[in-house]
Amino acid sequence: MIFPQKNSTILVFSIITFFSLSSFVCSFYTRKSHKFFGVAIGIENVPSSSLMNERQFLIILNKARKDSLLEPLMIDKDLSRAARYHSYDMGTQNYFGHDTYDRNIITDSLEFVCDVHTRTKNFLKHESKNKVWKVSADVLENCNYGAANGEEVFTSWLNSPPHCKNMFNPDHRLVGIGYIHIPGSKKPRCWTADFSR
Fold first, then answer.
1. CA 68: distance to chain centroid?
2. pTM
3. Which of 19, 25, 130, 176 could form a disulfide with 194 if both were Cys (CB 3.0 to 4.6 A apart)?
4. How much is the pLDDT for 4?
5. Is 149 exposed, middle or buried (CB count within 10 Å of its CB: 0-12, 13-18, 19+)?
6. Rounded average pLDDT over 72-78
């Protein structure tokens, strides 16, 4: 069957448009399945890339706090969920900072989602009922990318006055630690530590 010139052009255009849209939709859902978009609900539970690295950091930090005559910090699992979420988000969305951003899948630009306090409060709304201590203050946060282990991230934060102040705050008694390694990311090794009391 022979189509008139105008109809064949429309048909070709329609086929190209269909496949382009299909490809975009598949790409959108594939990317979305590997990343978080929007404000964290607070029930997200990203697994650590290395519990050993997180524990190493805590041991080094608590030894340094003891040497400074400060009480050791205890791991809080809800603060750790918040910390791992943020590390994962930074690694998959390729950004670095305390606020949360989403990367626009069309323009590749970063779009502000929420600040650190909004994000962490959502995780604390879902605190475990059987916790010994509930988080009772605002969260202060340290972030890092590039450190390969607990010793490296401790040294990095020790040499940064605001991060060092968070680690050695005498009021802090709880910490959440989140180390996420995402090969292929522009920020493949992301760390977050959330401190509170």
1. 30
2. 0.81
3. 176
4. 53
5. middle
6. 97
